[in-house]
């Protein structure tokens, strides 16, 4: 059997990093659209998107802010659009799914459990900040609980079911895999599911390769052939864990949401630079990178003609 091609997802801006941390982090609609398009041209077949307030770079769930860049990206690339339902750590599940509900993308993210989710150590790295909101936002993340109860998960699944959206099930620890198995058993999600193993977030499982192997073995036991998988390594482990995942037959995720770096101690110039690097590594090691249409087939997506933007 031929080896499945590797899907590269690029997470363009996210909700953790702030403008002070890197001038490359896009937060205006124009910059998000431009970087997303460039990432797709560099080899990303899936674009994972959050919105930001264009005035100060703060996290936004306003559908109007999504509307300012989604059509531009769709016009300029055939990449699969994946919209976050994470957004802000301080808002309701209804607010978090509002953009997905309005735009009906091919994919959206869904965290498979509540957890401590913190990045407060980053606050100590900066003496001055570009915008007033940034320091408090980062510093106070040690008080955040990223809420995703079973009730929340079911609400998202039932609400979005008519839209035929494929979930990127974000699993930050092994318990999240068991949560997902339970949700499949009660009929919330249909195979093939797509799991994003996430390593290196404070509050989740650590970024050791042994943990990747353990998560993969657990998923094999729970889901058999009914799942596809990808790896997200936060911060400095982004490229090394993505490389390992690609060699294990998995897919990969890079992007400035997950890491601001291109190599140890060096900031990335943009999202496309990270995509270019991981694509080269994947191909140099003998794997092929999936096109957007190949990604659609692998993940059983509804197609780019069925979105509402």
Automatic annotation (TrEMBL):
Instruction: Name a GO molecular-function annotation.
Output: metal ion binding
- What are the protein's UniProt keywords? Acyltransferase, Metal-binding, Transferase, Zinc
The record's Gene3D superfamilies line, in alphabetical order, gives: Aldolase class I (3.20.20.70)
**Entry EC no(s):** 2.3.1.247
User: This protein is called what?
Assistant: 3-keto-5-aminohexanoate cleavage enzyme
Going by the record, the broad EC class of this enzyme is: transferase
UniProt cofactor(s): Zn(2+)
Q: Which organism is it from?
A: Granulosicoccus antarcticus IMCC3135
